[in-house]
Design goal:
single chain, 225 residues, mainly alpha, disordered N terminus
């Protein structure tokens, strides 16, 4: 029987060389792929990571949002306190002018003092976001308008009866305008309160809707934040 022969040695050597080359190629390609992936990830991280300026801006924005949220709480408390001061005055002006009674000088001086006290919290307002500043400025303007109504009432008390009716009519119009201006500011305050997460805060003056002033929405107090 003939002896089974294997592959010649020179062919086996060539096959081993090719195998080693293929192994080195695969290993090299894998290393290149790994390095490429690492470099790609590093580049992506560097590109996606916010730079120092962006990080600083984000920090400032967070601080402003926190500060504004606190300002809204404080403004709401101030608005409630001031509303309780000026609401009886405006209601009394409406009653007095509608009844046609002659203005009382002593009452006028008392109301002027109330208006002076009501304006004090708005004399040096802090700087907040635009939306909060609008609410604060609207409340301040409403108080100023209410003060004009009281001053007109005081003037009407010191003029002859013949000129009194015209001043009393102006007093009533200014008081109504003060209520309307307050309702606009109160609506803005309600919105910024909701946006800040404090929920609805209805700091409105009691008034009839047909008088032109805005009225609270139907949302329960404190909800919606």
């Amino acid at each position: 029987m003939a002896r089974r022969t294997g592959r010649p040695s020179y062919l086996s050597d060539k096959a081993d060389v090719r195998h080693r080359r293929a192994t080195r190629f695969v290993a090299g390609a894998g290393a290149v792929a790994l390095v490429t992936a690492l470099l790609g990830g590093l580049v992506g991280y560097q590109v996606g990571r916010p730079d120092a300026t962006e990080a600083a801006i984000a920090t400032i924005q967070q601080a402003e949002a926190k500060r504004d949220a606190q300002q809204i709480l404080e403004l709401t408390e101030t608005a409630r306190r001031v509303r309780d001061q000026i609401a009886p005055v405006l209601a009394s002006i409406k009653t007095e002018t509608s009844a046609g009674r002659a203005p009382d000088p002593g009452q006028a001086r008392q109301w002027q003092e109330i208006m002076r006290q009501a304006a004090e919290p708005f004399a040096d307002p802090p700087s907040g976001t635009t939306a909060t500043n609008v609410a604060r400025g609207g409340l301040r303007a409403a108080i100023q308008q209410a003060s004009l109504a009281v001053d007109a009432y005081a003037l009407a008390a010191d003029v002859p009866a013949a000129q009194r009716a015209a001043l009393v009519a102006v007093t009533a119009r200014q008081a109504a305008q003060a209520v309307t201006m307050w309702s606009v500011a109160a609506t803005q305050l309600d919105q910024v309160s909701v946006d800040a997460g404090h929920g609805h805060q209805h700091v409105f003056l009691d008034t009839d809707s047909h008088e032109g002033a805005l009225t609270p929405d139907g949302a329960p107090e404190g909800t919606g934040g």
